[in-house]
Amino acid sequence: MLLLVMAYFSYRSIRFATLDNARTILVSAAPFALVALGQTFVILTGGIDLSIGSVIAVSAMTAASVVVHNPDSLWLALIAGVGVGLALGLVNGLVVSRLNVAPFVATLGTLTAGSGIAYVIGHGAPINGLPQSYGKIANTTVFGIQIPVLIMVLGFVVAFLILKRTSFGLRIYAVGGNRTAAELAGVRTRRILTTVYVISGGLSGLSGVVLSSRVISGPPNLGAGYELDAIAAVVIGGASLLGGRGSVWGTLLGLLLIQTLNNGLDILIIPAYWQSVISGVLIVAAVAVDVWATRRRSS
Known about the structure:
Blueprint: H1 2-12, H2 19-44, H3 52-69, H4 74-97, H5 103-121, H6 136-139, E1 141-142, E2 145-146, H7 147-165, H8 167-177, H9 179-184, H10 189-215, H11 226-236, H12 248-267, H13 272-298
Antiparallel strand pairs: 1-2
């Protein structure tokens, strides 16, 4: 599906198949990739994290507030933003694992509360007047590659190693495949569930800092809708919402499909409302193809 989309847009516009446009797609995909990775960990356990968008907003507003009062302390702003994300992820994890609240309900509550907290931090308005140096977090390049892209690549490599080369990764798949069986096998399922939500919150917090650094501002609605795109990327990549099946590289392909589609439609100047229709149809088509292929392999 990704190759078909790339071939179509390359045929329709000479601007699409260029190195500069490839860089544009990767840069725009980087913050989105971080939250999609976090969502992958959660979905593999059979859960879901709807709070991603609000965590991004709260983390961005926190980092922006810190850097406004401490313009020379970029690291402090980064640590504060990621720390808030980790804290919110911990809240989600404890509510799901200790109170046995359904992940949908628990993270929906955090989504609603987080959205309000973001506005409280900015007193109902965006935080502006950030120092230009704050933009270095998202706009600095190393060997011609922007820092967020390098973070994205590193994130996928580390996530792959965790899921495929560690006992922790094996336990994540075990919890998603059959939580009761995992508990009988000695897996501390509550700890695993809490940890995956903390990972998702931390990556969302980092994404919020990167996004706010890109615009050098702290919009309280930053990250709105990211949770749905992240879920779509993971599911398109072949993960099961019931848990126990999925991969990091599948998420990468789903991510690239969504970002490539959005980029190509923008280049062709397709109205936003038609972009939503086309994106929805292609997402369903991609998942249908994956389900069909899976059934053929198992038959």
